[in-house]
C-alpha cells in the first residue's frame, strides 16, 4: 500500500477509545477521558476512557465471575485451543487495521507494524493455543500404596500491565499464556498507546473468548495501574515497564494480598565486539540496526557498544556510513525504517540525555538533534557518542531512544566487568571467532540472554527476561506458563 493510501486510511479510520469490560465497550464510570495524541503529527486521534478504581472494581468483578463459573477455565483444552487459534487468525485478517492503529498510536514505521508487530502477536497467540493440549501433569514416584498427582491449575484473575513501545506484542506475551491456562485477564495498556489492546479485546470476543474473560482498561498507571496492583481480588500481575514502576507494583502487592508479581523491566544492554570478530560488517549492521530499531525504544536495545581498540576506527567509520539510512521519516511511508518518539514527554527525556552526554564530555559523532519539527511529530536523529565514561548518565541510565554510547577496551575481562557494572541484566552481545572466548564471556555476563555473533534473534519458543533489576520470571516459551498457574499436589491413599 502506498504512503498516500495509508494517509487516506488514517484519515478515515474509526477509533473507539472506550474501555472493554465484560464483553462490552463502556465509558469510564467517572465519564473522564484523556486525549490520545499521535506522535506522527501531534494530532488528536480520539478520546480514551480514563479508567480508575471504580472501573478496576467492575473489571475484577467481571473477571472473577467468569473464573468462578468456569466459562473459560472449564472448557476442555481442545475448546480453548480452537478459540485461541481463531483469535490468532482474526488478528491476521485484521492486520492492516491493527498495524495502522499501532503506527498512529506509537509512531513506529508502518513497515514494521505490518511485518513484525501484527504477525508476532498472532504467532504468540497461536503458539500458546497449540501448547494447551501438549502440557502434561505429573505422577510422583511414591510408594505403591499412595498416588501423588501434581497438576497445574490457573491462578485466577491475572492483571497484565504493559508498556507503550510494543503494545500488541507485549500484550500478547502476557495474555496468551494466561488465557491458554484458563485464567481471566485484565489488560492495562499504557496510556500512551492503548488503541490496539482495545481492538484486540473485541477480536477475542469475536473469536469466542467468553465475556468477562478478557477485559481492557485504558488509563494512567497511578490510577488504573495502582488500583489493579492494590486490589485484593487480583491474583497475579504480569508487568513490563520501568524498574521504578516495577518496584512500586511489588510494594502494592505486599500492601494488599501478596499477589504474585512477575516483572520484565529496564535494560542497558552491552554489545562487545572483539578484534577477532568473524564478520565486521555483520557486527556493524547488527549494532546499528538493533539500537535504532523501533527508534531505540526497546528494553533490550544494545545501547552500550564495547569495541576492541585495534578495530575501533574501522568499526566507527562503517557505522557512520550507515547512519543516513536510519534518518527518521514519515511513519506511514512504507520505506521508512525509523519513525517517531512516542510522545513529547519521551522526546524531551531523550533530548535531555543527549544534552547530558554533551555536557559531561562525551564526543558527539552523529545526530543529536530533533528533526521533522514541521510535521508536528516527535522525531530524533540517530545519535552516536564516543569517548563515553562509565560514570556518565548516558552510560548508566536507560535512555529509551536512538542513542548509542561507544566504549573502547583492550582486555576482554575488563570489558565484561564494565558490562556487568550496572543494575540491569537483560541482554548482551559478544562477537568473536574464538568459541572458548565466546563461551567464557557468555557465562560471565550477568544477563538473561547472550547473543554470540549476532544480536536480537527472537522466537516465541525461547524465554525472554533478565537478571538483577531487569526483572524476574520469563515471558515466551513454555516457561511463561509457570507464571500463570498454581502447582497442586493431591495425595490419594490406595491402601
Give a short summary of the structure:
The chain has 495 residues and is of the alpha/beta class.
Q: Could you characterize the architecture of this molecule?
A:
The chain is an alpha/beta fold. Helices cover 38% and strands 20% of the residues. The chain has helices spanning 3-12, 53-68, 77-93, 95-106, 110-131, 167-180, 195-207, 221-230, 243-255, 280-292, 312-322, 344-359, 393-396, 412-420, 435-444; strands at residues 19-21, 24-26, 33-37, 44-49, 138-139, 146-154, 157-161, 184-188, 214-216, 236-240, 260-264, 270-273, 304-308, 363-366, 370-371, 379-380, 383-386, 403-409, 427-431, 449-452, 485-493. The strands form six sheets. The chain has a seven-stranded mixed sheet, with helices on both faces. β17 (383-386), α13 (393-396) and β18 (403-409) form a beta-alpha-beta unit. α3 packs antiparallel against α5, α3 packs across α7 (195-207) and α10 crosses α11. The model has no long low-confidence stretch (mean pLDDT 97).
What is the topological layout?
Blueprint: H1 3-12, E1 19-21, E2 24-26, E3 33-37, E4 44-49, H2 53-68, H3 77-93, H4 95-106, H5 110-131, E5 138-139, E6 146-154, E7 157-161, H6 167-180, E8 184-188, H7 195-207, E9 214-216, H8 221-230, E10 236-240, H9 243-255, E11 260-264, E12 270-273, H10 280-292, E13 304-308, H11 312-322, H12 344-359, E14 363-366, E15 370-371, E16 379-380, E17 383-386, H13 393-396, E18 403-409, H14 412-420, E19 427-431, H15 435-444, E20 449-452, E21 485-493
Helix pairs in contact: 3-5, 3-7, 4-5, 4-7, 5-6, 8-9, 10-11
